[in-house]
Write a structure and sequence with these properties.
Layout: E1 5-9, H1 17-26, E2 30-34, H2 44-57, E3 62-66, E4 81-83, E5 88-90, E6 109-112, E7 117-121, E8 126-131, E9 133-135, E10 141-143, H3 155-164, E11 171-174, H4 180-192, E12 199-204, H5 207-216, E13 222-226, H6 227-234, H7 239-252, E14 257-260, H8 275-286, E15 291-293, H9 296-299, H10 304-324
Parallel strand pairs: 1-2, 1-15, 2-3, 3-11, 11-12, 12-13, 13-14, 14-15
Antiparallel strand pairs: 4-9, 5-8, 6-7, 6-10, 7-8
Helix pairs in contact: 1-2, 1-10, 8-10
Keywords: Kinase, Pyruvate, Transferase
Protein name: Pyruvate kinase
Length: 327
């Protein structure tokens, strides 16, 4: 049977050795570490537990790190802030980075935390809450129809790459890839940091990324269809169409690709998934995905091991059907 890579994400719910071992036994072939919430050194204990768990299970899993890259997020120092629908708030209390301020013209819509919160600017100083929620630190920000020029790698990214090899990192996930130049710069830095054998994953999370997707393929090892910020960029009702188009591009060029974001979101608080989530996993793999990934479901969900069990079993069912049928 063709290889299928199944990833979870390390986090508060799954950083102990026994839990990581249970994830491997459930079918995980690797784990991701999201560096938007801390650097490699700060997660040294989690990574050590990952390697201990792998040794005890007799497996050689992949360890991917998700870089910060040219991504907008709320401040790490922001205190949790309840936002009520239809209320007016001062924009400078929302923990937005300074670079967004020139782009906050009247009537601009801002999506926060993968679209869970929606704001609209009233003027340069105030915004109206169109869809409320609890605003938390280090959550994604998307300004509709606005592209802000940001560096490919942050200072923290350079620091993390410089020590990634010593932590056993096997793959680099580069967010918000916009051009071949982005990937060339990341690859050069990887080579300089002793990561020549590590895989480079290009995350497509914007309209810019979609437009450039075909040209990116020679410069990465695998494309990632990252549906969280991608949905904010293209609009939620157009997400499935965008995913389908990217899948077709990858299949046409025989390029491996990964599907990620909310694949079992219903299991954040439930021990069993919804039928729709099982169908999502099945069709992602049946349609040709070479990798799939759980994020919050294992990192902070209430049922990380149960989620991985459903994830892997459904994925391998789809893979068998794909290979047995006409594809």
């Amino acid at each position: 049977m063709k290889d299928l890579y199944i990833f979870g994400t390390l986090g508060p719910a799954c950083h102990e050795v026994e839990t990581i071992m249970a994830l491997f036994r459930a079918g995980a072939t690797g784990m991701r570490l999201n560096l938007s919430h801390g650097n490699l050194a700060q997660h040294a204990d989690w990574i050590a537990n990952f390697h201990i768990a792998a040794k005890r299970c007799g497996v050689s899993p992949q360890l991917l790190i998700d870089m910060q890259g040219p991504e907008l997020r709320t401040s790490a120092s922001l205190s949790p802030l309840p936002l009520e629908t239809d209320h007016i708030v001062m924009t400078n209390t929302l923990g937005f980075p300074d670079c967004v301020r020139p782009y906050l013209k009247t009537g601009v819509q801002i999506l926060v935390d993968d679209g869970r919160i929606l704001l609209e600017t009233v003027d340069h100083e105030k915004s109206k809450v169109l869809r409320g929620g609890l605003l938390l630190p280090r959550k994604s920000i998307t300004i509709q129809n606005v592209s802000i020029p940001l560096p490919v790698l942050t200072k923290e990214d350079f620091d993390n790459l410089s020590c990634a090899a010593q932590y056993g990192v096997t793959g680099i996930m580069q967010p918000f890839v916009r051009s071949t130049e982005d990937l060339i710069k990341v690859r050069a830095q990887m080579d300089a940091c002793g990561l020549k054998n590590a895989c480079l994953y290009a995350k497509i999370e914007s309209k810019e990324g979609i437009a450039m997707a075909e040209s990116l393929l020679p410069y990465c090892d695998e494309l990632i269809i990252a549906r969280g910020d991608l949905a904010d960029s293209v609009g939620l009702v157009h997400l499935a169409s965008a995913q389908h188009d990217l899948e077709k591009i990858c299949r046409r060029h025989e390029k491996p690709y990964m599907i990620v974001t909310q694949m079992l979101h219903s299991m954040m608080t439930s021990p069993i998934p919804t039928r729709a989530k099982i169908s999502d996993i099945y069709h992602a793999v049946y349609n040709g995905a070479s990798s799939i990934m759980l994020t919050g479901e294992t990192a902070s969900g209430s049922y990380p091991v149960e989620a991985m069990n459903y994830f892997a079993q459904t994925a391998y069912t789809a893979l068998k059907d794909r290979e047995d049928g006409t594809f």
